[in-house]
Amino acid sequence: MHHACNTCILHPASCILYLLLTAHTALYALELPDVVSGLQQRYASVETIRGSFQQTYRAPGIRREESGEFWLKKPGLMRWEYRSPEEQLFVADGKESFLYVPRDRQVTVQPFSAADLHSTPLRFLLGSGDINGSFFISWEKEFKPRTQQTLLIRLTPRRQESGYAFLVLEIDVHTYDLRRIAIREPGGSTSEFFLSNVVTNTKLEKKLFQFKTPKGVEEIRLNSEQ
User: Fold this and answer.
1) 80: which residues sit within 8 A by CB, 6+ positions away?
2) Which of 10, 109, 139, 194 is most exposed, with the fewest beta carbons within 10 Å of its own?
3) Residue 51 and residue 143: Cα distance in Å, rounded?
């Protein structure tokens, strides 16, 4: 939670100037290599991570927002509980992933290993991957920060088969915590994950990453080639 400073409470105009000055200082006091190094070092020792997320999808004529809670554990375990506007559950147990939609009484199952996780933007949260070796890196100019005291960098894949045009990472200038991941797809649509209440290296129960198809629910199995 962000707390208002005394300057903001007593002198709103001064607060605006203060924020502009501090934002400028924070941005240019860091070089791109320092940001990338700080981000990778921040998550190198992370074994587990949990928090809240808000996911926003934008495409021409479409805007969809969803939110919930998530849990991740090295090397490739995940649980995403979508709670609004519709309940959904995504679980990856290291071998398979399960997408369960209670309203449809249906679960989709497909292969999903740690290697599959590490080929997605979520790998940054578990300290995986060589950012410098995989991306061209630049300051971000199109997207704007969603929180104070953050900066944005753009990562453009060196290999075209990545499945996305570029990524934008919003990073805390003091802690190097990752606050937001934006994914721009080749067709122009954008998915954003805004993260909050994030806690790292807490014990997570094994059952969080286990899924058993409920009785009476249709199970659809997809192979890796579909």
Assistant:
1) 53, 68, 69, 70, 89, 90, 91
2) 10
3) 23
pTM given for the model: 0.82
Q: Which tokens go with 128? A: 């995986």
d(CA 180, CA 192): 7
Reported as a single tens digit per residue, the pLDDT across 98-144 is: 999 999 999 999 999 888 887 788 888 888 778 998 899 999 999 99
Burial 32-69 (b: 16+ CB within 10 A, else e): eeebbebbbebbeebebbbeebbbbebeeeeeeebbbe
CATH topology of domain 32-221: outer membrane lipoprotein receptor (LolB), chain A (2.50.20)
Amino acid letter at 94? G
* Residue boundaries of the structural domains of the chain: 32-221
